[in-house]
Design goal:
Length: 340
């Protein structure tokens, strides 16, 4: 079904796991260590620095490795001196696998799989909320299957924070010290901040994947009006999501994909290729939201800019298109194949 129109839509944040397709990709990208399912089932922990994942075979979008995002946040925490030891890992099917470490002296924690309710990590997975212990060895609030690797590392006071995406834990971040002392408020706030940033980043990545899957599925549909509306929704969503992505490569690919969508539907009265009208990316961003029926304030919210900025880009686009109204601007942009 087509997405609901703009006036009733929430800001784009989704939670559908990526589905990388196999087949020839494994031969074409055999030099990559991890190309399956957005790195979630990967057993590697030492990915190449620029390792990227193919999200869809027919509409290739390079999704940065989620493990790299986890590692990056841990390094930020370590740089801020949050705790002598910070570590974490991703959650797959409610099972946490520890894979990223800063400040550890042993390898006993590496690769541990922690199901719900087991140890401190399993507790936060089950409860979907942060938890801490001030004396790991003697704590009565957790189970103790992992005492040996934890205590061999010398950890005593430990904080665990889940990264939640659409109500599900996707990562658990830890901060730990080798003394039996309460975790400080500064440490708690910094780890919570890292968890929020990771949650936002993974939500955006998931939404990009979901939209690309929808677009891929539409290839099997006819060119009826509902399909056209869905293409327009996806086009606008890709333009708005692109503004939330920090990775420039991913942002560029999103813009390329949106341009391909715009070229899919050619109106009977479309203008020829000789037209020299060129709109800036931000002008197309704004028009794509206007085409969905968004007000200026709704477009501003979806694009993460100010309302006056939207008005400015809209005026600029209308001047270039030689139009005098929002509706006329959208119609003309479609004739030019700047919008689907």
């Amino acid at each position: 079904m087509p997405s609901p129109r703009c006036s009733s839509r929430e800001t784009l944040v989704g939670s559908v796991a990526p589905r990388a397709q196999r087949g020839n990709l494994q031969q074409e990208l055999s030099h990559h260590r991890c190309i399956v399912r957005g790195c979630r089932n990967c057993e590697q922990t030492d990915h190449p620095k620029a390792n990227l994942i193919v999200v869809a075979a027919s509409l290739p979008l390079l999704r940065p490795c989620d493990g790299d995002a986890v590692r990056g946040e841990l390094r930020v925490l370590a740089t801020h001196g949050v705790a002598p030891v910070v570590f974490g890992g991703q959650v797959h099917n409610d099972v946490l696998r520890l894979s990223e470490f800063v400040g550890t002296r042993t390898t006993g924690l590496k690769g541990l799989s922690i199901p719900p309710h087991s140890g401190l990590g399993g507790r936060v997975i089950a409860r979907h909320s942060p938890a801490s212990v001030h004396d790991y060895r003697r704590s009565t609030t957790i189970t103790h299957q992992y005492d040996r690797p934890v205590l061999n590392e010398g950890l005593r006071s430990v904080l665990a924070v889940p990264v939640m995406v659409s109500g599900r834990p996707r990562v658990v971040l830890y901060a730990a010290v080798r003394e039996c002392i309460p975790i400080g408020e500064r440490t708690i706030n910094l780890v919570l901040g890292a968890a929020r940033r990771l949650g936002t980043e993974m939500s955006v990545r998931d939404e990009v994947d979901r939209r690309l899957q929808m677009l891929d599925a539409l290839k099997e549909c006819g060119t009826n009006s509902s399909t056209t509306e869905e293409l327009r929704d996806i086009h606008a969503d890709l333009r708005s999501v692109a503004q939330l992505v920090s990775d420039k490569t991913v942002q560029s690919r999103l813009h390329e994909l949106s341009e391909r969508i715009a070229a899919l539907r050619r109106p009977e009265n479309a203008l020829g290729p000789e037209s020299d009208v060129r709109l800036a990316p931000r002008e197309i961003d704004v028009l794509s939201q206007v085409a969905l029926g968004c007000t200026n304030s709704e477009a501003a919210q979806r694009l993460s800019v100010g309302t006056e900025t939207v008005k400015s880009y809209l005026r600029s686009a209308m001047n270039k298109l030689g139009t005098s109204s929002r509706h006329e601007s959208v119609v003309t942009a479609r004739k030019l194949r700047l919008l689907p």
